[in-house]
Amino acid sequence: MKLRQLFAVGFAVAMSTSLVTSATAGVPDLEAWTFGSTATRIENNSEWKINLGGGMGFAPDYVGSDDYTAHAMPVADIEWRDAYFLSTQRGLGLNLVRRRQTKAGPRLTWSAGRDSSDNTDLTGMADLSSSVEAGIFFQHFNGPWRLEGDLRYGLNGSGHHGVVGSIGLALGGRLSEDSSLIIGGVTHFGSASYMTSNFGVTSAEATSGRAAYIPTAGFQDFAGYASIVYNVDKNIYLTIDGRGTLMMDQAANSPLVKASDQYFVGTSIGYRF
Questions:
Q1: Positive or negative: CA dihedral 206, 208, 210, 213
Q2: Contact 64/199 with Cβ under 8 angstroms?
Q3: How confident is the model at residue 144 (pLDDT cuts 50, 70, 90)?
Q4: Domain that includes residue 67, residue range
Q5: For position 28, what pLDDT does the model report?
Q6: What phi and psi, each to the nearest 5 degrees, are found at residue 15?
Q7: Less Cβ around it within 10 Å: N or C end of the chain?
Q8: In this predicted model, what pLDDT tens digit does every residue of 89-124 receive, in sequence order?
Q9: Which of 51, 129, 43 lies closest to 88 in space, CA to CA?
């Protein structure tokens, strides 16, 4: 491995580890928001695939809020021999199945949680601690189509201690020699424990303007998204990412949800090798 690659790997590991160990409530959903940054790759013969970058996005203060805030979006994604990966987007995991068209395996991810200080609408609510999640994922490619999904379980009892999953379908294609467009949709669903942690209101947290609420298992949301990836050269890329989300069923009925329609727009720049 060249010195530059060794330095980059060390930097990426340090960044990923720092973000995982120091993350607090309010950290954005990097896997969804920086989809464009990890949607395409360059071909190389190295055992290492490295992607470093960052950007900025605008999204609700918390899931269900009608107030919006700017969020920093770091990107640090490294993979060794197409098998092991450590990433601010994908977590820590293993491509146990690593065929050309299909990848699947176990991984550890991070759920950021939520602080009552994130928004005045959360005043009087208990903080939702961040959680490490253990789960499995899969990706299957068929021409321009991509089918993917995951299932995760919260390991921290003071955070969400439930099961959450997703399944999505995306279509990608070239806009020009240097740019690509990926559009898709994804839905999330959760167990009763997960939904209660994120959208429930206990009798102690209830106020005159916020009724007690105990949700059951169900679908959380459906989101449609689009990402434009522009390759400045072989290594440097720019993305523009947008997402619209509609809260569903048990989540939409929560008194914590002030807007059932949620939006995100962001941009990022990165270097891949």
A1: positive
A2: yes
A3: very high
A4: 3-272
A5: 57
A6: -65, -45
A7: N
A8: 899 999 999 998 999 999 999 888 889 999 999 999
A9: 51
